[in-house]
Write a structure and sequence with these properties.
Blueprint lengths: L3 H12 L5 H13 L1 H19 L5 H19 L1
Helix pairs in contact: 1-2, 1-3, 2-3
Bound molecules: zinc ion.
The site of zinc ion has 6 residues, from α1 and α3.
Organism: Halopseudomonas oceani
InterPro entries: Anti_sigma_zinc_sf (IPR041916), Znf_put (IPR027383)
Pfam families: zf-HC2
């Protein structure tokens, strides 16, 4: 039986979908019985979603925009 500590150790791999079937089953069995770990995993999922929503993908666009603005400003200066 997986302990709470064991579950925490597996949690990041769980969210990344990198657990073996056996590990997933152990995690699921533990979560079925343990409210604290259910809450922990839910919290972890929420923060992971927030992190993924950070505009990493927009950074190249932002940089391109910035460069375009700088180029424009240089043209204006000429
Ligand atoms: Zn637990």
């Amino acid at each position: 039986m997986l302990s709470c500590k064991g579950l925490v150790g597996l949690s990041s791999d769980l969210l990344d979908g990198e657990l073996s079937l056996k590990q997933r089953l152990a995690v699921r069995a533990h979560l079925a019985m343990c409210v604290r770990c259910r809450r922990f995993i839910r919290q972890l999922r929420v923060s992971q979603r927030v992190i993924r929503q950070l505009p990493d993908a927009d950074v190249p666009e932002l940089e391109a925009l910035l460069q375009a603005m700088q180029a424009q400003r240089q043209q204006d200066a000429d």
